[in-house]
Amino acid sequence: MVNRLKPVTDTVSSSLPDTDEMMKQILYFFFLLLFCSCTSHRQLTLPTRPATALSGSAFYQQAAGYTWQQRDSLAVREILSGNMPDFFQKFVAIPITTSRADGTTIQAVFYASPDYMSIGNEKDWARIPLTPMAGQQLADSLGCFLPTRKMVNTIYEHATVKLEPLPLYALRDSTPTMFHHHLMIEGQRQGRKGLIAGIKKDVVISSKVSQDPRPNRVAIYGWHRPDGKPIQQLYTGHINWYVDYSHGIRLIHRKLKVDGKWMDYTQVLQDPELRQLLCDEAMCDFTKYNY
Question: Which residue from 100, 179, 197, 233 puts its CA 20 to 30 A from 188's CA?
Answer without folding.
Answer: 233
